[in-house]
Design goal:
- By secondary structure, the chain is an alpha/beta fold.
- The protein has a single domain, classed as 3-Layer(aba) Sandwich (Rossmann fold), CATH 3.40.50.1820.
- The protein contains eleven helices and nine strands.
- Strands 1-2-3-5-4-6-7-8-9 form a nine-stranded mixed β-sheet, sandwiched between helices.
- Strand 1 and strand 2 form a beta hairpin.
- Helix 3 runs parallel beside helix 11.
- The two termini are about 35 Å apart.
């Protein structure tokens, strides 16, 4: 089947209308100035930024119509691991149902790239959505919400004060606003962080390559490096280059807990109270700041939930996602 670029883009925006009439076909992909199209997933991949030789990518799941609200998904992985793929099903369905554009982007990963440049990538991704999104995928740059899990939750909360214009709403899934506290800057006692035992030399060898924005491109084991960092309490210094004990103020411009004001976006926090990777108290700390500054917010506590909500009641987890979708609808409209 031959599909021209222009006609195919039109087809993508009307996918819901034509989906039942389309015959099955395999992946069709082509490059148009940094654009890659995947037919079977109704997804377009763009290069939103280039840093030296590294192309940093964003996946866009289009919606029918014009001036559509945008939901941005930011992946987790301790800023060390992960990539733009793996958007959660509940979020894909919420965006499909409401005809929201969904954008999921990569960002450069630590420790090959340090924290300020990681945050710069996040800011540049939102700038790209605002400047190029209306023409490329019919985005309404005035209606953007952000959702992220774990380190993606951290970046979601960071977007709440660093991205301009500010997003309409944030959903942080087991995220955090503090990156110098003892939970990250002291050795972890939890078994989940003791699975890999490397020397310092072996650990840093895992991440000694060139900058990457997708952990699948790293030759070493980023997960083993993360475990080493948690065993030693080295994560803050590894991702930033700064000592959290001697120079904590350098981290403050990158910590949501230090930057909440009355202008901060409405925020939904979802967190398991037995989380041994990102403590539940991290969301409680954000809620305290939100109350202090009278920011609209809600904290959903999932009893017995570990990191990623594992161990919590599945019905309550599902309800939390329903609540998150409703929260997005309320702030983005239709």
């Amino acid at each position: 089947m031959k599909i021209t670029y222009c006609c195919f883009i039109a087809l993508l925006y009307h996918a819901q209308i034509y989906a039942t009439a389309l015959p099955p076909f395999s992946i069709f992909s082509s490059a148009f100035d940094g654009v890659n199209i995947e037919v079977d997933t109704l997804k377009i991949t763009y290069t939103y930024k280039q840093a030296g030789e590294l192309k940093i990518l964003a996946d866009v799941y289009p919606a029918a119509g014009k001036n559509r609200p945008v939901v941005v998904w930011i992946h987790g992985g301790a800023l060390i691991m992960g990539n733009r793929e793996g958007v959660p099903d509940w979020l894909l369905e919420a965006c499909r149902r409401n005809e929201y554009v969904l954008v999921s982007f990569d960002y450069r990963l630590a420790p090959e790239t340090k924290l300020p440049l990681i945050i710069e990538d996040v800011e540049d991704a939102f700038r790209w959505i605002g400047e190029k999104g209306p023409k490329l995928f019919h985005a309404d740059p005035r209606r953007i919400a952000v959702v992220g899990g774990s380190a993606g939750g951290y970046l979601t909360l960071t977007a709440g004060f660093r991205v301009k214009p500010r997003p309409r709403a944030l959903v942080s899934l087991y995220g955090y606003g503090d990156i110098v506290g003892s939970w990250y800057s002291e050795p972890s006692p939890h078994p989940r962080h003791q699975g890999s035992k490397l020397s310092r030399e072996e650990a840093f060898k895992q991440v000694s390559g060139k900058p990457i924005a997708d952990s699948r491109e790293r030759k070493g084991d980023g997960g083993a490096f993360y475990q080493f960092c948690r065993q030693q309490g080295l994560w803050p210094k590894a991702v930033s280059g700064w000592d959290p004990r001697k120079e904590p103020e350098k981290f403050y411009p990158y910590m949501a807990v230090k930057n909440v004001t009355a202008d901060y976006p409405p925020t939904l926090l979802i967190h398991g109270d037995k989380d041994t990777d990102v403590p539940y108290e991290q969301s409680e700390m954000m809620a305290v700041e939100f109350r202090k500054h009278q920011v609209e917010h809600r904290l959903i506590r999932l009893e017995g939930g570990e990191h990623g909500l594992a161990g919590a009641d599945p019905k309550l987890i599902n309800q939390a996602y329903v609540d998150a979708a409703t929260f997005l609808e309320r702030h983005l409209g239709h």
